[in-house]
Amino acid sequence: MSNDVIAAWDRVESLLRLHPPASPVRPGASDELIAEAEAELGYRLPAGLRALWRRCGGPVGPLTPEGEVLLGVRQALDTYDLLNHPGVWETTWIPFTADEPEDPFSGTFVDAATGLTGSWNRQDISCLYDDGSTVAGYLTEVADELEALR
Question: How many helices (H) and strands (E) would you count in the chain?
C-alpha cells in the first residue's frame, strides 16, 4: 500500500509542477514528528498516511478544484482536536485534507483502523466512503483531476 501512495503522490507532485498550487509542496515530515503524532493519538498511523507525510509535510494546495489542501502533521492533529467529539467523531479517524488548513470546515480523513477514507465537515456529518477508497485512491483521483486540467 505504501508503494501505491508513493507512486500516486509522485504523479500528483509532477502534475503540480505544471499547475503550481498557492502553497508549494513541502519536504516530508520527519520520522520523529510522525512518532510524536502517534504518541499524541495513542496509536500507529496507517501506512498510507505515514508514506504520504514522509513525502510531503504539508500543508500544500489547493490540490483539487474543490480547494482541498493536504494537511501537514501538525495541522492534521489540530483539526483532529477540533473534530474529536465523542459520539460524533471516531477516535481512529485522522483528517488529512481540509478546505482551509488554519480554519477547516470540511475535508477528507483516513480511518487508522481500516485504512479507508471518508469525508468530514464541522456540521458533524462525517462518513466513510462506501467504495473502499484509501489514501492511494484519493491521491490517484487528485492526479486524475490535475491531469484533466492539462
Answer: 5, 5
Q: What's the angle, vertex CA 149, arms to CA 48 and CA 64, rounded to 5?
A: 40
Determine the Cα–Cα distance for residues 96 and 128; give it in Å rounded to an integer: 14
Return the SS3 of 118.
strand
This prediction's pTM? 0.92
Q: Could you identify the residue written with the cell 471516531?
A: 90
CA dist 59 and 71 (Å) reads 5
Task: Note down pLDDT in tens along the chain; length 150 residues.
Answer: 589 999 999 999 998 888 787 777 889 999 999 999 999 999 999 999 999 999 998 888 888 888 899 999 999 999 999 998 887 789 999 999 999 988 999 999 999 999 999 999 988 778 888 888 999 999 999 999 988 876
User: Crossing angle of helices 135-148/2-18, nearest 10°?
Assistant: 20
